[in-house]
From TrEMBL:
Pfam families, A to Z: RibD_C
Gene Ontology biological process terms in this record: riboflavin biosynthetic process
Species, as recorded: Dactylosporangium matsuzakiense
GO molecular function: 5-amino-6-(5-phosphoribosylamino)uracil reductase activity
Domain Bacterial bifunctional deaminase-reductase C-terminal: 106-181
Superkingdom to which the source organism belongs: Bacteria
Name of protein: Deaminase
InterPro entries attached to this UniProt entry: DHFR-like_dom_sf, RibDG_C, Riboflavin_Biosynth_HTPR
Length: 190
């Protein structure tokens, strides 16, 4: 069965974006770029991949499907890009956007459970905090690019009521820029 992996950048104080959805304050130094190119090339938007040295047709390594909330898609839509990850099966959960094959207005948990039953690579939970809160029970793995930044406020990693959920550290990869890539797996029995 495929895994749902929440792969996301976060600040030391647990925010994945600023109060207005800003993400431009996250460091994106050469060492992080190289880490992403080597391990998670499919997490770069399709239009960015050639500029990052990832040729068209490069096979996906970890993910072949992504799910995201509407606010995560908004910056691409403002730039006139409806499918920022055209090299992946992309689904957006929204009750505000026009319906279509990639816009899901139903239950995210039921939809992700169906995706997990399919064959293929893992499923990338791209964001945001509200969707992550709804899907927390389905998240099998966290990959957090922990940035050496304190934001003070913004979009939390997970917007969810008090419900402690245990994960175990699988790996920690410190980068020279100060970013630490932390990989966690759902704790047994969690």
């Amino acid at each position: 069965m495929r895994k749902l992996v929440y792969y996301v950048a976060a600040t030391i104080d647990g925010f994945i974006a600023g109060p207005g959805g800003e993400v431009d304050f996250f460091p994106f130094e050469a060492d992080l770029q190289e880490f992403i190119r080597a391990r998670y090339p499919e997490t770069l938007p399709t239009h960015v991949r050639p500029h990052a040295g990832i040729p068209d047709g490069t096979p996906n390594l970890v993910f072949d499907t992504l799910v995201m909330g509407r606010a995560t898609l908004d910056p691409a839509l403002r730039a006139g890009i409806s499918r920022p990850y055209a090299h992946l099966r992309q689904y957006t959960f929204s009750r505000r956007l026009d319906s279509g094959p990639e816009i899901i207005d139903g239950d995210p948990v039921a939809f992700v459970r169906e995706l997990k039953r399919e064959d293929g690579l893992d499923i990338w939970l791209c964001g945001g905090g509200d969707l992550a809160g709804q899907l927390l029970g389905e998240v099998d793995e966290l990959v957090i690019k922990l940035s050496p930044v304190i934001a003070g406020q913004g979009v939390p990693l997970v917007r969810h009521g008090f419900e402690p959920t245990r994960f175990r550290l699988v790996s920690a990869t410190p980068l020279e820029s100060g970013v630490v890539v932390l990989t966690y797996a759902r704790a047994t029995g969690a």
